[in-house]
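Entry 14. Structure prediction run on the chain below.
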Amino acid sequence: MRKHLTPGTVLGTVAVVFACTGSATAGVLITSNSIKDGTIQARDIKKGTISSDRLASNVRTQLAKAGTPGPAGPAGPAGPAGATSTVLGSAPTAGAAGKDGVDGKDGAVGPAGKDGVNGAIGAAGKDGVDGKDGAVGPAGKDGVDGKDGATGPAGKDGVDGAPGKDGADGATGPAGKDGVNGKDGANPATLVASSGASGWGFMGGGTTYPSAYFTAGELRLQGGFDGSTPAGAIGIGKVYDNVPLSSLKTLSYDFRILKRPAGNTVSAPTIHVSVLKANTGTASGFTNFVFEPYYQADLGLNQRYSLDAMVGKWWATRAAGGIDQSHTATWAEVINKNPDATISAISIDNGGSSSNTIPADQFAAGVDNVIVGFGSDFTRYDFGG
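Output returned:
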């Protein structure tokens, strides 16, 4: 606690000085030299005896600076008794100063301070709910049509589709009346009733499998194969002396299937055209161009069919100009891709091969009315009479 120099303390000290002086005039003159320092106390000075103008200037200055004294604090405990002097007329020794009194009450509340600085702006609030859509406005008027653009170039022609199968034969019409026997025409039927007639001879068979034969006015074929023949099949054939393949213009025949295993829809009388100089990549250019009826239409048993090989699909036993069993071709494509090929034989046979052999007793078919033509001439062959 900070100690203050109070007016009471100052005045008390001065009063002691003057009191001692006053009492000394009654007898002996007592001067300041006669008073022991520190022996004059406040109680020794009469109240109201010393005025402020009798105080030293420095004391008055301190009094002016001092504020209004606060309320008196409670009395401190009494100090110990001073020593008793035995000297006559000497002042008693002053006791020790008491402890500081309790602090006075707080002063009045001062004026309000200035407003503080504004705080930071708070975070933005959440967006409000969207309002409902307004009503749809009326539709605008149609704009004026633009002018037609220029016509683009024509697209390329699409690829030709695969040829469709031949349609089923129409019903046979009623037989006409027999005409009057006349003279032979320019192209009468040529009878082939035995092997070797008109250049047609049996090919293959005779040992393991039976050969072809004539019966009931037709060529009869059975199952089996024979690798010694140009076609590897068993039937009847005619040899040609390297006639240009491109000169063959007519080739057709009639046939019927009498017997074949259940589920077999492939086996039927077949045409083989054996050639040389085909585009096979070999020195001889040998291959067989094959016409098989099952590539043309679905065939049943005991029905007579008449097929024109010139309008059907062909394949080659040895690839020739890209034509093989997996890549069939029309006759025009065969000629176009093998322009130098020549014919060495034409055969009508059972279509047998080492990979597709039917036992002899499980296949039977009849063939007749074979037509072969080169250029504008043709010959019809009557097998069996």
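The radius of gyration is 76 Å.
Filed with the rest of this week's runs.
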